[in-house]
């Protein structure tokens, strides 16, 4: 049962593994030290690797598509045998803008034609917007709609960086900076340095012959940010939880289908 839908979830998990590997081998965001040997100015800043980010973004979009498609595929398989072919166009997994409209939305998608238990299962997973709705499920739905026009772009998560970590790698980093936010500005901390060893400054920034960038060994996460939902969580964790949730919903649906299907 749900062979095609399960294959789509499997593909979503494969893509998530690809994304995880990309993040680890070619991070979309790093935290760097900049040194200007002419002026003596040094600064720390967040740096975006746009090519690496593009690869992650495209795969994230594909994960969302596969998970939403798995829902629709399983729903169609569940309901299509119980309605005339002319009604098949209505057979998409129901999503409602509000809790109050959910019952009518489910009915418009003909879930009740299977049996009352099936309709109740769909209602129980809370596919509606708002605080009481199923957040992960609705993000899959909403992002899938957004992705038709604009791919979901993960953001760098720099809150785990501390001045202590930077001091351990940058001997002349200003001491006593405890409340600085990292990764939020073009340049987070700027100071005057002395006695540069060119061998330790990193890579020169073309076309200059005096500006150097060096990636620092500090934790930079990659998070999905959905401000309207108050959501800011790691990309890999989010995608895995979404796949788990779709699998759970398919199991619930399968459990109440009539034996003959």
Automatic annotation (TrEMBL):
Q: Which domain of life is it from?
A: Bacteria
Q: What name does this protein carry? A: Uncharacterized protein
Instruction: Read off the lineage from the record.
Output: Bacteria, Pseudomonadati, Pseudomonadota, Gammaproteobacteria, Alteromonadales
């Amino acid at each position: 049962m749900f062979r095609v839908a399960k294959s789509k979830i499997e593909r979503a998990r494969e893509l998530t593994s690809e994304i995880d590997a990309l993040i680890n081998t070619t991070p979309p965001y790093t935290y760097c030290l900049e040194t200007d040997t002419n002026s003596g100015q040094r600064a720390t800043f967040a740096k975006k690797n746009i090519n690496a980010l593009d690869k992650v973004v495209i795969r994230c979009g594909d994960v969302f598509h596969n998970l939403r498609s798995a829902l629709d595929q399983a729903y169609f398989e569940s309901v299509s045998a119980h309605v005339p072919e002319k009604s098949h166009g209505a057979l998409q997994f129901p999503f409602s803008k509000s809790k109050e409209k959910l019952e009518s939305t489910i009915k418009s998608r003909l879930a009740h034609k299977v049996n009352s238990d099936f309709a109740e299962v769909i209602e129980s997973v809370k596919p509606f917007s708002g605080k009481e709705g199923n957040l992960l499920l609705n993000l899959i739905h909403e992002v899938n709609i957004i992705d038709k026009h604009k791919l979901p772009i993960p953001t760098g998560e720099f809150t785990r960086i501390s001045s202590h970590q930077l001091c351990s790698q940058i001997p002349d980093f200003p001491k006593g900076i405890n409340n600085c936010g990292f990764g939020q500005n073009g340049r987070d901390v700027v100071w005057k340095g002395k006695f540069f060893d060119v061998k330790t400054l990193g890579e020169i920034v073309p076309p200059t012959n005096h500006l150097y960038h060096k990636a620092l060994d500090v934790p930079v996460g990659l998070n999905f940010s959905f401000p309207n939902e108050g959501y800011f969580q790691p990309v890999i964790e989010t995608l895995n939880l979404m796949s788990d949730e779709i699998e759970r919903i398919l199991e619930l649906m399968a459990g109440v289908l009539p034996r003959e299907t």
